[in-house]
Design a protein that fits this description.
alpha+beta; 4-stranded antiparallel beta sheet; 4 helices; 24% strand
């Protein structure tokens, strides 16, 4: 069965429909221009295209801790950390037990490493309005 997730609310809905309880992992990233960027890359970046997405903060949440996207945004503002794109993934529990925050640490670290290496296709990406993004990665 294919799940079409078009926005943040659909993510929460899909996570709630899974057989096992889900912990949702979020990595907030900031678009940055590499130091060695050429003129074309600089021009694209100024138009909101290209650049590198650098992880700036992470958080894991149970579905009970999540409501709407604006609440997640408000919580992120309290950190004072600027961000542009949120990546999300679900971590499934086992035997009806949700993963703990401690159990989420290794998958979260692997998620951050994957994003740093450009491997973003396996994660959902959201803009600041909670809409999903399709991010093209260099081949």
């Amino acid at each position: 069965m294919s799940i079409n997730i078009s926005n943040y609310e659909k993510l929460l809905e899909a996570a709630g429909q899974q057989a096992e309880p889900q912990r949702i992992l979020f990595v907030f990233t900031k678009a940055e221009l590499p130091e060695d960027a050429d003129e074309e890359e600089i021009a694209r970046f100024k138009e909101g295209q290209g650049g590198a997405l650098t992880p700036v903060m992470c958080v894991d949440k149970s579905l009970n801790e999540l409501s709407d996207f604006s609440s997640l945004i408000e919580e992120s503002k309290k950190t004072g950390q600027e961000w542009d794109v949120i990546f999300a993934a679900c971590q499934a529990g086992r035997n009806g037990v949700m993963p703990t925050t401690e159990e989420a640490q290794q998958p979260m670290a692997m998620m951050v490493e994957s994003i740093q290496q450009g491997g973003v296709a396996r994660f959902l990406a959201f803009d600041r309005d909670g809409n999903t993004l399709h991010i093209d990665t260099p081949r």
